[in-house]
Amino acid sequence: MHLGHTIGFIALTMITSTGSLAGQVPATVLRAARVFDGTTMHTGWEVVVAGDTIAAAGPSASVSVPRGARIVDLGDVTLMPGMIEGHGHFLLHPYNERSWNDQVLYEPLALRIARATVAMHVTLLAGITTERDLGTEGAMYADVGLRDAVRQGIIPGPRMIVVTRAIVGRGSYGVRGAPEWDLPYGAEQAGNPDELESVERDQIGRGADWVKIYGDYRWGPHGEAAPTFTEDELQRAVLVAASSGRYVAVHATTVEGMRRAALAGVATIEHGDAGTPEVFKLLAEHGVGYCPTVSATEAYAEYRGWKKGVDPDPPSVVQKKAAFRAALASGVKICFGGDVGVFSHGTNVRELETMVEYGMSPLEAVISATSRNAEIFHLADRGRVAPGLLADLIAVPGDPTRDVHVLRDVRFVMQGGAVVKKE
Predict the structure, then answer these.
(1) How many Å apart are CA 398 and CA 80, to the nearest integer?
(2) pLDDT tens digits, residue range 311-348?
(3) Stated pTM of the model
(4) Distance separating alpha carbons of residues 85 and 352, to the nearest angstrom
(5) Which of 22, 57, 128, 226 could form a disulfide with 220 if both were Cys (CB 3.0 to 4.6 A apart)?
């Protein structure tokens, strides 16, 4: 390129990105028929965005519009915080496309990363502006690079909270084959308290934002789920994570696995398939968040031939419905996180729809996907529409606090003050 063209291109880029050669990007005023602030629906509100944050939000009469601000009238939509999903796997794709075993064993790392970048973009366009990715499932530390690529503006995608490889009890997790073979595993193994701490510290050092531990898995005498770590071991892991300013998420489907994790002081428990009223009450008492992943349970059943709405519910779905309703009744804080990757990326809202189907109100479901997940995951800078918070915002038609299905039709996405989708 000719030097003069290069200088001209740089100058044009500076003018485009800053509004003038010497000035800053002008503020943007977003107007919509409704604004959901993370807890409450409002009408007659405006939201002012300056840089990557929300500068002001409130009734139009009380919001001062900065001089030179760009006015964006979104029309008859609900403007709301970008959704925060609490349980996903960008490095997996639906198991009816290829089984988990085959993905871990046969798909090259480069292929899995390439597929993940597409999944991340689709997810962002679906209104998920933050994703807690709970394990690379054999893809080592690829989530750290993907997270950093988003931060550096190299690829589009949600802000990511990553755990790298996750931690499993030695001998309890796949991939499994003949006993004489040492096959690759979907997570990193630990066989005693010292090893657990060593693995945990190593994963933190390699970039983990949270620590994920499998508190139980299908290693019982007959292949049934059983606890893999003691309460003391889990408590030690929580203390190590806390020392580094991090939190622990625990996969637990059994009552005993959930009980040990809650008493150990973990931040969230994932799945909880066999949860009872008593154990959910324990979670509530200890301030532990619960990610039910109801959509994954239904997806597994569908891959085995179940036709929802046609066939009777299989035992796994019956059990999950009972657990979810017990969780609702207990008052435990329920997060939005469907285990996406088991089913298609970009259809994340399926989890909210299913939670409502199982008994949660639409309002509580939308709160779960915004301010509640921000609270559970200690993300004080997002999840609400309020001054000083990140300008991660989306717009959907209708009122999602009355009908969560409208969340499938995302018309507008802003991330860090930049518009990434506008229809």
Answers:
(1) 12
(2) 999 999 999 999 999 999 999 999 999 999 999 999 99
(3) 0.92
(4) 10
(5) 226
394 in Cβ contact with 127 (< 8 Å)? yes
2, two tokens: 């000719």
The dihedral region occupied by 330, where left means phi > 0, alpha psi between -120 and 50, and beta the remainder, is: alpha
| 331-to-28, 102, 165, 290, 360 alpha-carbon distances in Å | 39, 39, 31, 10, 12
What confidence tens digit (pLDDT) does each residue in 245-259 have?
Answer: 999 999 999 999 999
Q: Which domains does the chain have, with CATH numbers?
A: 3-81+385-422 (2.30.40.10), 83-348 (3.20.20.140)
State the SS3 of the chain.
Answer: CCHHHHHHHHHHHHHHHHCCCCCCCCCEEEECCEEECCCCEEECEEEEEECCEEEEEEEHHHCCCCCCCEEEECCCEEEEECEEEEEECCCCCCCCCCCHHHHHHHCCHHHHHHHHHHHHHHHHHCCEEEEEECCCCCCCCHHHHHHHHHHCCCCCCCEEEECCCCEEECCCCCCCCCCCCCCCCCCEEECCHHHHHHHHHHHHHCCCCCEEEECEEECCCCCCEEECCCHHHHHHHHHHHHHCCCCEEEEECCHHHHHHHHHHCCCEEEECCCCCHHHHHHHHHCCCEEECCHHHHHHHHHHCCCCCCCCCCCHHHHHHHHHHHHHHHHCCCECCCCCECCCCCCCCCHHHHHHHHCCCCHHHHHHHHHHHHHHHCCCCCCCCCCCCCECCEEEEECCCCCCHHHHHCCCEEEECCEEEEEC
pLDDT at 337: 97
Structure tokens at 354: 């299913």
> Contact 257/237 with Cβ under 8 angstroms?
no
| 154/143 Cα distance (integer angstroms) | 14
Q: Rg (Cα) of the chain, in Å, rounded?
A: 22
pLDDT tens by residue, 158-208: 999 999 999 999 988 877 777 877 777 889 999 999 999 999 999 999 999
Which tokens in the block code for residue 324? 């979810």
Q: Output the six-digit token pair for 87.
A: 């349980």
